[in-house]
Amino acid sequence: MTVSGTLRETVGRTRRAIGISLGSRGGRAVAVGVTILYLLGYLYAIGMLQPGTGAFGVRIASTPAAQLFRQTFGSFTYEPVALFELGIVTYQFSLNTIIGLAIGILVGINVAVSYIAWRQPTACGITSGSAGLVAGVPALLSGAACCAPVVVLLIGIQITGAVLVVFELLLPLSVAMLVGSLVVVGRQVEPTAT
Fold first, then answer.
1. What totals of helices (H) and strands (E) does the chain contain, helices first?
2. Is-contact 147 46, C-beta < 8 A?
3. How far apart, in whole angstroms, are the C-alpha atoms of residue 123 and residue 24?
């Protein structure tokens, strides 16, 4: 088989695995739940979601279009353009929300495919039910890499500029790892066995 044929088959199997995962009620629930939890955790870690003061209100930046793409202290971190005070929580909308949602969706789909592998291990050529669960570990680890710079800043560790540059690469690297783990798990799915 040619490289393009192998690639086409791998992409096809991955798409079918995603379709099978999101086609089941349990897979959809897992994907949506993990996506929401990841997004909330991501926004909290970068300071865009905080405990509220009890107040209610909305404030929008004077030039939201210009401010939307303005980076703050690092790559892939953007200034907020709207503040929502919702009583118990204060949320700042920025491009970070869209980035966090995209990564959350990738993590959610990865975990949903791993959930199907765990629930139906024979569909993935896995003989043990626990092996399918282990397939989700790379997705969770690579998704967690997105917040590493924020976690280090929260802990207060002094870091040199060179290490901070490496941290800026973690977000694209984690997205690549999420896509890679999805392809690795997805290509193992045998659609006729589900």
1. 9, 4
2. yes
3. 14
Q: Which pLDDT score is estimated for 88? A: 92
Strand ranges in the chain using DSSP code E only, listed in sequence order: 49-51, 56-60, 82-86, 89-93
pLDDT digits (tens, 9 = 90+) for 159-188: 545 455 555 677 787 788 888 888 877 777
Residue type for position 116:
I
- Distance from C-alpha of 114 to C-alpha of 133, rounded to nearest angstrom: 6
Specify whether the CB–CB gap between 114 and 132 falls below 8 A: yes
Domain boundaries along the sequence of the chain? 8-50+97-193
The first and second tokens of residue 116, run together, are 């199907």
Contact present, 84 and 52 (Cβ < 8 Å): no
Instruction: Give the up-direction half-sphere exposure of residue 154: CA atoms within 13 A in the CB hemisphere.
Output: 9
Sheet of 56-60: strands edge to edge?
49-51, 89-93, 82-86, 56-60
The pTM for the full model equals 0.73
pLDDT tens digits, one per residue of 16-41: 888 888 888 988 999 999 999 999 98
Sign for the CA dihedral angle at 76, 78, 82, 86 comes to positive
Amino acid making up residue 167: F
**Looking at this protein, which amino acid is placed at residue 105?**
I
